[in-house]
Every structure is written in C-alpha cells, then in structure tokens.
Amino acid sequence: MTSNVPLNELGEFLKKRRSELSPRTVGLPETGGPRRVAGLRREEVAQLASISTDYYTRLEQGRMQASAPVLDTLARVLHLDDDERGYLFQLAGKTTTRTRRHGRQKVQPQLQRVLDDLTATPAIVQGRRGDILAWNALAAALVTDFSRIAEKHRNYPRLIFTDPAMRSLYADWEGSARIAVAQVRMEAAKYPEDPRLIELVGELSTRDEQFAQWWGDHRVAARTVGTKTLNHPVVGELVLDWDTLTANTDPDQHLTVWTAAPGSPTHERLRILASWATEQNLSPSASLR
C-alpha cells in the first residue's frame, strides 16, 4: 500500500512557505484590508502559478500529486531556494515508491582510509539521520569522546539537543541547532517511513520545545559547507570552516572535515588540541572495531 506521508508533508511544506510571503513580495497589489490568513492565500498562489485554485487546494490537502512543471512553477512562485526546491521535488517523487528497509550502515573502506590519514584535521563520517559512523581522534577532542556514547545514541542532531556541553561549545548554538533540524527534515523527505528517524524526531520533539518549534517551520538544508565558531574548553575560540564530501559508493555516507587557514590562530590551536588528544589517549573509531 502506498503511503500518503510524502503527500501530506508536501502539503504542509507548501502551506508553511506561502504563509511567509506577502502579496508585495510576489508582486501582487496590497488591498489594504485585513487578511484572514498569514501570507498568501491559496487562490493567490494558484493565480501566480497559472493553475486552478481547486488543483492547488488538492495539493495542499495531500489529495493529489503534482507534475514536475507545476512543482517547478510553485518553487519559483514561493521563492524557494535550491535546498527547498530539491526538498519539494523529493517529497513529490517519493509518493509512488515503496520505502526500502535499510540495514545497519558501515563505514566504506575508502572513507575509513581517508579518515585514518587525517591526523591534523578533525573529521567524522555521518550516515543516515546524522548518525555518527566514524571519527578520528582530533574530532573526539574537538566535539566529544564519541566512544563513550552508546551506539544507538551516537547521532549528531541528538547530541546538539541533549548534551548540555554542546550548547557551550557552539558560539551560535541556535544557528547550528536550526541547521541540524533542517538537515533532519531533508532526510525525512528521502526516508519518510524510517522507524529510527521517526523515533528520533519524536524523542527530540518531546524533550526540547525549540526542536518541536523549528521542526514545525519546515525549513530544509543539505549538508554542504559553512563556518562555525566554537568555544573549546581546552584551547579557547576556534573559527573553523567545515566541508562535506559524499561517498559515491553510498550517498548516505558523508565525510565532514573542519579546517582553518594555515598560520591563523585557529590553525595553531588545532595543533595544540591534537597534542592534548594524544595525552588524553582519545581513540579514533577505527581502533574500536
């Protein structure tokens, strides 16, 4: 039986995005009178997309699928960015595909070799849902000793919301947490019936009001690149660029590395942190298998 989860999710996503747009933003005249709904009305979106109001209403109610040209037009009308547009298409494309059951992920040998060679750069490998599959010693020193966390709880979004030390570590904890929620939301479009993902969202929604609020915003983000400022308890402030590489052999495995420009204060502090990690005998994941 085909699940309606993606269709319902698509409808909620469309409603949320149109609620954040004003008529002036999309080039419609302001009537000046009170509006019964936040943002654009359904008929206004339909007008801009050159489709009937009934057609658009059915999309929002999860009662029908949209064609690719209509999705493309709606993405333009609703001013979606690249990540949001990709998310919209993922939701629409999953409605007729049976969700595959996925077994336990293992780090690809190619990624493991790269990880083992990165002795001066913090790096982790994440899998589906943001699960932490592998790490090097410097990543353990930078973030936390992942080996002390039960494997079933070794999940980056979960750590951000449940480990108090993470709130102190991230200078902009809220910004990082919002991105984590948006990345989980993107994962949910790919695997809407993943029981572990459903469990993760349910747990964090119950435990943290901010997670529940931001989950309801329907923001999405892919794992790409960025800059983070960390307040490390041992070496102080670190301004790190992060980048994500995806394995061709398993698109659900991503290598994330944190780097700093040579000669910068952060670069020198990473060297100090690497020495500290050796003194603390922090282990990379490879030695645990």
From TrEMBL:
InterPro entries: Cro/C1-type_HTH (IPR001387), Lambda_DNA-bd_dom_sf (IPR010982), MLTR_LBD (IPR041413)
The HTH cro/C1-type domain, residue ranges: 35-85
Transmembrane residue ranges: none
Organism superkingdom: Bacteria
Pfam families, per the entry: HTH_31, MLTR_LBD
PROSITE patterns: HTH_CROC1
Gene3D superfamilies tied to this protein: 3.30.450.180, lambda repressor-like DNA-binding domains (1.10.260.40)
UniProt-listed SUPFAM superfamilies: lambda repressor-like DNA-binding domains
PANTHER family: BLL4672 PROTEIN, BLL4672 PROTEIN-RELATED
Protein name per the record: Helix-turn-helix transcriptional regulator
Record organism: Streptomyces doebereineriae
